[in-house]
Design a protein that fits this description.
It holds the Pfam family Epimerase. The protein is an alpha/beta fold. It is about 35% helix and about 20% strand. The protein is globular and about 65 Å long. Bound molecules: NADP nicotinamide-adenine-dinucleotide phosphate.
Amino acid sequence: MRLLVLGGTVFLSKAIVAEALRRGHEVTAAARGTTSNPPEGATFVKLDRDDENGFAALEGEYDAVVDVARQPTHVRRAISALADRAKHWTFVSTCSVYSDDATPGQRVETAPLRQPLAADADEADPANYGEAKVSCEQEVAAGRGSDALIVRAGLIVGPGDPSDRFTYWPYRIARGGEVLAPGKPDDPVQLVDVRDLAAWIVDSTENGRTGVYDSTSTSFTRRQLLEAVAAGVGTDVQLTWVPQDFLLANEVNVWSGPKSLPLWVDEPENAGFMARDTSATAEAGLTIRDVADTARDTLVWIVDERGDKPWRSGLTEAEETDLLRNWHSR
Ligand SMILES: NC(=O)c1ccc[n+]([C@@H]2O[C@H](COP(=O)([O-])OP(=O)(O)OC[C@H]3O[C@@H](n4cnc5c(N)ncnc54)[C@H](OP(=O)(O)O)[C@@H]3O)[C@@H](O)[C@H]2O)c1
């Protein structure tokens, strides 16, 4: 297969290139090359999607195109230049396109979407991410109708993740001792290992799958998550469950960023955020490895490759110690 990945130099799109190469496909990765390089064995085409004629650098026809763009203009240009030259089209979207994060058990067919991005909005602003992805999906639909695969990914985790969200947990738990566990043990979580998602996307390009899929695991509990991480990194820890109200009162951020606890969101506003009904995706063959395996491999990546750049998510050791002390002495 002749596969074109628009991206291919970081995390998910890089994993898709790696997986397709492993299966013997002929892969082109097209990006600016500012962040990193695609895996060895791929043909790299340097192009900038901010440039109206950027896609002129790509020639010929493709059996499949995979696009991970976040900006509608970038998607519109890709569709206009390539939609007629590709047999199969995958657009990687996100569960952030949904407008109702409060209701658990929602499905693709019935879950309401956010509004598309307003014409005068800044499409590069991360605050507009969900709306921009809705508009990106609309650009794909305008160019390909229903002849495309729309992958609405949940949290993508594993080796190479630049966001440090799931990564915080293997890193923290490997240190052992008393670990601050946020919220309630039975709170739902969902995630997808980057390698499993990449494999499923390459499967889909091979078998011509189209349609819209919430592409993440079935939901499981935060206790199962943290225990699986501990098993994966081989450390015994004591989990101290600290409720939402205490964490919010102490200015701990949900989800990501400084002084945050990843894979924790506030309820009831976000009770459905990691409790989507993904049974249709599981039926379509997305299988997700044991979280313990993801945690073990992520720890290896932290040690061997992540380097000592500042952490983008999680608590520092001092922040966690302070919070636990305050919790016990309340
Ligand atoms: N991470 C998550 O948990 C999560 C969850 C849900 C959905 N998603 C979705 O999953 C996808 C993740 O993709 P990813 O891991 O490959 O990361 P990404 O950061 O979305 O990758 C963007 C790719 O596009 C290239 N690119 C960016 N700007 C460009 C431009 N102006 N011209 C040409 N190329 C450009 C980048 O390379 P250069 O910078 O070198 O050009 C890179 O290869 C995204 O679609 C994201 O919305 C992610």
